[in-house]
Specification:
The structure is a single chain. The chain is an alpha/beta fold and 341 residues long. It is built from twelve helices and 16 strands. Helices cover 33% and strands 19% of the residues.
Length: 341
């Protein structure tokens, strides 16, 4: 089967691309022929021209962006983002839309007058050629049912490139390494807030010694409102490294003992960490984390970290839930349904 993925080509710059890449890789491993067409990356409100022949060959998987003309040779088009009409009209292949965003992440900007990211999904779901609106996280089924109707299909788990995100491999050298190193990401997301998470870290640092909290992907410049909390962590000897956006996150995960996340679903940071053998504490009810807590109650983070520091559970079996094999077994059934429809 010939599958064409259309997404922005943005290695180490865009979570949507990283997810689309791993889905394309799984398609190849599942026996499909894959074309990957660059839709162009939007930077500062300006969309860059699509690239043809750009290469991403991380971890032994070589992805090259194809000429948009290859769309016409496809059996199924997988849209991760919008594409120019001229790319789609010459070919009548069925379309699967992939909804990467959470409902709130799509709804909130539009409710504030910033684009139409939520209602647009309802519009494209009505297209005759749209056969499926694919999303991860079954927890959001009630949210999306009203938008997609019977075209919505949920997959339990996202797919993570297990060759790239594995326990074995290179690590980074932490400048402020502790006996137990904790990673915190996702400061740039608008649909979650790290405030309660960091307050919980401060409360934990008041009691537990030897722990370091490292912030990666922290937006720069750091806003002054963070200073009281970060200064408190530093005073307690628990402030680790602080970085902005970073590439090669697998090296960072391997340098950590734990990831803490206020997300209640399996985001890429949570999935990637689990695949790298790193334990995870996440917001209740995240179904793949070692411990789920309510970050509004700092005592819960402290107790979860105490348990992890004494006993680190193996993540191997949970990582298999995110594997390419698990994914392509499910997606190939969906492709067949679409073709047979």
């Amino acid at each position: 089967m010939k599958i064409c993925h259309i997404a922005p080509f943005a290695p180490n710059r865009c979570g949507l691309y990283e997810a689309a890449r791993d889905m394309a890789r799984a398609d190849v491993l599942g026996g499909n022929i894959v074309y990957f067409v660059d839709a162009g990356v939007t930077v500062g409100g300006v969309r860059e021209d699509p690239k043809i022949g750009a290469i991403d060959d991380r971890a032994g998987f070589r992805l090259a962006t194809a000429d948009p003309a290859m769309i016409n040779d496809s059996d199924i088009i997988v849209l991760h983002t919008g594409a120019p009409d001229i790319w789609l009209v010459k070919c009548q292949a069925p379309i699967i839309w992939v909804v990467h965003g959470r409902p709130l992440a799509c709804f909130r900007p539009e409710s504030q007058g910033k684009g139409n990211s939520y209602s647009l999904y309802k519009d494209v779901a009505t297209w005759k050629r749209t056969k499926k609106m694919l999303y991860f996280w079954e927890e959001f089924k009630p949210h999306w049912d009203a938008v997609f109707g019977n075209k919505g299909v949920a997959l339990d788990y996202p797919v993570i490139d297990e060759a790239r995100f594995s326990p074995e491999g290179e690590k980074i050298k932490l400048q402020n390494e502790g006996k137990f190193n904790v990673l915190i990401c996702d400061s740039s997301r608008e649909d979650i807030d790290l405030y309660e998470t960091v307050v919980s870290c401060v409360e934990t640092a008041n009691e537990i010694t030897g722990i370091k909290f490292h912030f990666f992907g922290f937006e720069h410049p750091i806003q002054p409102c963070w200073n009281p909390l970060l200064e408190k962590l530093k005073k307690l000897g628990c402030l680790g490294d602080i970085y902005g956006r970073m590439g090669d996150m697998e090296k960072i995960y391997r340098s950590m003992d734990c990831l803490i996340s206020p997300n209640r679903i399996i985001t890429r940071t949570i999935g990637e960490a689990i695949s790298c053998g790193v334990n995870v504490i996440a917001q209740n009810p995240c179904k793949i984390a070692d411990y789920t807590i309510d970050f509004a109650q700092p005592e819960q983070l402290k107790e979860a970290l105490k348990k992890l520091m004494n006993n680190k559970p193996d993540t191997t079996e949970r990582a298999k839930l995110l594997s390419s094999k698990k994914y392509y077994e499910k997606i190939n059934k969906i492709y067949k349904e679409v073709q047979d429809a």
